[in-house]
Inverse folding.
């Protein structure tokens, strides 16, 4: 080796993506594409040098010296010495799939989706679309210490969109499911029907009224809350850069004693990482335990400079350098039942489903949007409302969690950061927030 | 190109028509972590996308390894087997198009000196106000693409791109700015640095705002985010004809204030990636979506135009993950009555947290403000601590009181700041 490196690693991801798009009964697309991408990282005497290549250039068994040179040369612009931490390394086995999507013909998948499509039919439904995606990838990793891993993982899933319209009002219902446990599109007509029913019901739902009130979040939305309000702010790179309000708060109480939040990339859910993308062992990290901030999520670099937490949380898209990311993030069960929570809430709003969210971790502000909700009056669900969102300050809101349910459920999805999108799951039981700032067009 | 000829020749045996898109790009970047460059990176990428049409059925596949084009062609053919046929009227024939690059700066190359100089200038600008850099980046890219089809069309061009961004913080106040251009002259790192620092430094110590209805000035960034969330999807011919657009069946109706126009002008000199042809090789033209408040047209690629018997508008872009052509826009320009929109008191909104969570069908949104200020007398005055803005994106098109003279190019939109009346803000005050 000619370059004076302190560390290098290489990650090559190759595979095939299959997509099917059934739009208003017509198959608009059904086919496969191919990719082969590699990223080489070298740590010279200062900072990182990163080289991304694809196609023929990525077709190597042993990393060519010329690529190490190019990556090292790319590091010449860096102006700071970056220390990294040596980390334990191991490969968790990838669980066997119940039914390997690769064993099912495109023909059959298309016909299953067309069956699912039929279930979205109904009065007022004006548009229906079903998308299927299957990403089959082989990951090869090796580093300068001689660690080397190869694993194969297939992620697949689908989404159903139904649009209802009446009297100039247009509303949509959306359902999705993604998994690593094999083909998941058989016998899912119920979910497709749910999307259509929701779209139709939303036509009669009232616009939400904005203001400060008690809010109950369903497991899907509460999972997004855990992800946006806590997960991102606990990412070691943001802590290191000084753009998270959780910096310097280890062992401080930052939330309700009921609250425990975990990120666990080793759990075989949609965000599963058999090993992380810089070769570190993945394991359960308790970010918050009983309201006290216990750990940050780390890469080798951020663990070395920040401490307090675990490496194994570093992920990248194929061909892109990995950064600190969440994987399977969830709030642990409390002991309240759903009925108790609704009844205890007395007056407020139940928010259900998620249209996503965003956070400014430096400022400590987050926002997320529910697909729909119900007003809670006298401890009972009453009017259905639409387009309800919630925003808040992280440090303040975590203290306002007054009840946590015992019905933890995980929901797969995707998370974007730094221009990279990775598969994740978010989850939670139902939970109740006091004094939540709920957005809506109507005000008093 | 030999490769393209080989693929077209092979495709001729198995398909009625074929189209090849080959792209190659090389870029380098420097990333700031706090005030030092922590990462230097280089990217070399290439890809081909093959599309075939057989009996009106469209099949597409892509690969980043041109050496495996045979597998890719097979996959494109296999995919066409399942597609529902379109009343296909053919890929375009070659026209006398000037292939001179419209977004190429010959001074740009993957040269580390360029990115380190951009970083130096970003940092210099950031020193105008008292705030800390958390992260930032500068990158330059050079790319080329060739689009060829079985009708003898073969267009090639090359392009360049410069991108800079900076994130700063002061106390708990953050400031973010970025800029993208194809040429070095229209990128202003000192200004981007200064503005990030301004929003971080001057955003501190804000008071809460009372819940109520306000006059609001949205920055070009916020305007662009709201257009992206609901208006642009509603103009897509595919969404219009499949029942996913509130604009369906409303051509000729008033959908915005009478002074408001929304026009796609692919050749506007402010565009960041202008090209004389679209993603399918159709010569680009100006599309007046909304003129003086009246809905005039929708965007179509070939597939959608043929499927629904409409005229193609050369609106195909190749920005998606697969690189297959899909309906998009080139330079979507929002025009309105120009005025000094910060003269009268208003709530100025620099950025939105969660704009993508807006309801894309109905246009209803309710999102958190980022870097909000009270503005008056032509300038931003006191910062506002937090607040949520709620409304309907389609209603907003009727509430535009005035727009700024200056515009910003953000992706495929060219937008001014806009002043709106009677907008709901939910405060914590």
């Amino acid at each position: 080796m000619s370059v004076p490196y302190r560390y290098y690693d290489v990650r090559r991801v190759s595979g095939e993506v299959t997509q099917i798009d059934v739009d208003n009964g017509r198959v608009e697309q059904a086919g496969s594409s191919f990719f082969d991408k590699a990223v080489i990282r070298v740590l010279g005497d200062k900072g990182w040098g990163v080289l991304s290549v694809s196609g023929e250039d990525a077709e190597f068994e042993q990393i060519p010296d010329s690529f190490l040179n190019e990556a090292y040369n790319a590091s010449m612009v860096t102006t700071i010495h970056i220390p990294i931490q040596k980390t334990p390394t191991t490969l968790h086995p990838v669980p066997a799939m119940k039914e390997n999507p690769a064993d099912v013909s495109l023909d059959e998948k298309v016909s299953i989706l067309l069956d699912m499509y039929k279930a979205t039919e109904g009065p007022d439904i004006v548009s229906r679309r079903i998308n299927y995606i299957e990403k089959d990838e082989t990951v090869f990793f090796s580093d300068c210490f001689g660690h080397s891993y190869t694993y194969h993982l297939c992620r697949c899933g689908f989404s159903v969109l139904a649009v209802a319209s009446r009297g100039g009002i247009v509303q949509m219902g959306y359902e999705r499911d993604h998994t690593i446990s094999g083909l998941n599109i058989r016998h899912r007509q119920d979910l497709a029907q749910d999307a259509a029913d929701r779209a139709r019901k939303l036509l009669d739902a009232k616009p939400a009224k904005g203001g400060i009130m008690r809010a109950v979040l369903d497991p899907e939305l509460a999972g997004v809350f855990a992800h946006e309000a806590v997960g991102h702010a606990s990412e070691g790179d943001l802590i290191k850069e000084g753009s998270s309000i959780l910096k310097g708060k280890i062992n401080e109480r930052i939330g309700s004693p009921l609250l425990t939040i975990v990120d666990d990339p080793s759990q075989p859910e949609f965000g599963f990482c058999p090993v992380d993308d810089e070769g570190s062992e993945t394991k359960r990290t308790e970010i918050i335990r009983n309201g006290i901030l216990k750990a940050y999520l780390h890469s080798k670099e951020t663990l070395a400079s920040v401490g307090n937490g675990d490496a194994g949380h570093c992920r990248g898209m194929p061909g892109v350098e990995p950064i600190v990311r969440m994987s399977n993030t969830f709030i642990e069960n409390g002991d309240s039942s759903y009925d108790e929570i609704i009844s205890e809430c007395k007056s407020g709003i139940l928010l259900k489903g998620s249209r996503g969210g965003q956070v400014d971790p430096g400022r400590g502000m987050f926002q997320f949007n529910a697909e729909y909700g119900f007003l809670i009056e006298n401890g009972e669900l009453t009017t259905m409302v639409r387009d309800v969102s919630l925003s808040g300050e992280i440090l303040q809101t975590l203290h306002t969690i007054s009840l946590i349910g015992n019905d933890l459920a995980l929901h797969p999805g995707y998370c974007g950061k730094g221009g990279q999108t990775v598969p994740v799951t978010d989850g939670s039981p139902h939970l109740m927030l006091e004094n939540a700032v709920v957005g809506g067009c109507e005000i008093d | 190109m030999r490769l393209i000829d080989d693929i077209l020749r092979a495709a001729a045996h198995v398909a009625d028509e074929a189209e090849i898109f080959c792209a190659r790009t090389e870029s380098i970047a420097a990333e700031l972590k706090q005030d030092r460059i922590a990462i230097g990176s280089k990217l070399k990428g290439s890809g081909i996308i093959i599309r075939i049409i057989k009996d009106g059925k469209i099949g597409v596949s892509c690969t980043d390894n041109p050496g495996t084009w045979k597998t890719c062609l097979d996959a494109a053919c296999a995919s066409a087997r399942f597609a529902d046929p379109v009343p296909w009227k053919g890929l375009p024939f070659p026209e006398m198009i000037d292939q001179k690059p419209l977004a190429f700066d010959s001074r740009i190359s993957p040269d580390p000196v360029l990115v380190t100089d951009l970083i130096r200038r970003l940092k210099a600008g950031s020193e105008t106000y008292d705030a800390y850099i958390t992260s930032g980046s500068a990158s330059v890219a050079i790319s080329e693409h060739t689009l060829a089809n079985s009708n003898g069309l073969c267009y090639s061009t090359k392009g360049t791109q410069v991108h800079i961004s900076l994130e700063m913080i002061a106390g708990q106040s953050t400031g973010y700015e970025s800029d993208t251009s194809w040429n070095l002259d229209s990128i202003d790192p000192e200004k981007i640095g200064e503005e990030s620092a301004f929003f971080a430094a001057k955003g501190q110590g804000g008071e809460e705002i009372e819940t109520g209805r306000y006059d609001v000035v949205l920055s070009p960034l916020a305007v662009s985010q709201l257009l992206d969330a609901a208006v642009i999807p509603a103009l897509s011919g595919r969404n219009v004809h499949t029942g996913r657009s509130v604009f369906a069946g409303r051509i000729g109706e008033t959908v915005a204030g009478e002074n408001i126009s929304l026009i796609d002008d692919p050749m506007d000199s402010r565009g960041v990636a202008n090209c004389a042809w679209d993603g399918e090789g159709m010569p680009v033209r100006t599309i007046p979506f909304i003129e003086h408040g009246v809905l005039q047209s929708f965007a179509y690629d070939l597939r959608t135009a043929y499927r629904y018997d409409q005229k193609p508008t050369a609106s195909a872009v190749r920005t998606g993950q697969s690189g297959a052509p899909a309906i998009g826009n080139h330079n979507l320009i929002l025009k309105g009555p120009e005025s000094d929109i910060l003269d009268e008191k208003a709530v100025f909104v620099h950025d939105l947290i969660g704009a993508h969570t807006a309801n894309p069908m109905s246009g209803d949104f309710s999102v958190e403000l980022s870097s909000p200020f009270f503005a008056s007398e032509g300038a931003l005055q006191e910062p506002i601590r937090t607040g949520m803005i709620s409304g309907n994106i389609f209603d907003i098109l009727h509430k535009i009181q005035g727009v700024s003279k200056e515009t910003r190019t953000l992706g495929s939109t060219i937008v001014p700041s806009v002043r709106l009346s009677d907008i709901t803000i939910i405060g914590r005050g």
